[in-house]
């Protein structure tokens, strides 16, 4: 079950990254990702695979850890992060 959730999260994140890359192809950008300590993005961050994949497109990934869901949603609302899980 955990593997299925991880795979779905990774697919969703890669789809968002590809969409971001298509929109900002001409210029380098930062992708600001918010995550929680117990989420599946911790594994993606630890491996560094997202950074490697997006570096080819000139996108730098910035990770921000949030203590809980309300704080992560507030980060999305105020624009301090672009994507959160």
From TrEMBL:
<protein>
    <submittedName>
        <fullName>Sulfonate ABC transporter periplasmic sulfonate-binding protein</fullName>
    </submittedName>
</protein>
<feature type="signal peptide">
    <location>
        <begin position="1"/>
        <end position="28"/>
    </location>
</feature>
<keyword id="KW-0732">Signal</keyword>
């Amino acid at each position: 079950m955990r593997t299925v959730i991880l795979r779905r999260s990774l697919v969703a994140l890669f789809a968002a990254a590809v969409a971001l890359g298509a929109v900002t192809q001409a210029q380098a950008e930062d992708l600001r990702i918010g995550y929680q300590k117990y989420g599946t993005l911790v594994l993606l961050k630890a491996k560094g695979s997202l950074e490697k994949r997006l570096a080819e497109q000139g996108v730098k990934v910035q990770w921000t850890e949030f203590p809980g869901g309300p704080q992560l949603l507030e980060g999305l609302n105020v624009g301090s992060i672009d994507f959160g899980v």
